[in-house]
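TICKET #2291
ISSUE: user wants both folds in one file
ATTACHMENT 1:
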Amino acid sequence: MGLQQAMAEFTFWYNAIRPHQHLNGRTPLEAWQGIDPYQQIPNGTYLFQAWDGLLAGVYLRR
């Protein structure tokens, strides 16, 4: 795996999957788009895993 791919995976995980305490449990992507994840049902859920399991979570597609 190259550095560019590793950085892309980390960026996606950090911004779209990992909830942030400072954002009241929302991801940065949800905050930027003004989405309240507690009021809107996702269109689909996808398991995300990268870096041999170090980055893992569920992506809520909206």
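ATTACHMENT 2:
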Amino acid sequence: MYMMAKHLHLTAVVLSILLFILRFIWSQFDASILQKKWVKVLPHIIDTVLLASAIWLCIILSQYPFVQSWLTFKVLGVIAYILLGLVALKWAKSTPGRWIGFVAALAVLTATAMVAVTKQPLF
């Protein structure tokens, strides 16, 4: 069960990141594809699978946020990534603001991935 949950989680992570990067690239070219229904719905489906698999892994491993500090850091990192992703894709009104949000989101994502691999909080 653990390997299935882990592979599902990692697959959802990769799909979520790739789709975020793709949507950002499309937004830079003002692509009409961003208005397609599947582009608006698919990220929510992937992120739901991502969250469900994360909860599944927590239950399997009996490790929970706010009990294990590395997992707390990971949850806070994901929240920061989501907010910075919103800056990059929706909230920022200027191109430099969108790029700052995009780069910051990827930096937070990298730190969160490091914590996930090492199981040691950065702070």
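RESOLUTION: both attachments delivered.
EXTRA DETAIL ON ATTACHMENT 2: Residues 90 and 98 are 8 Å apart (CA to CA).
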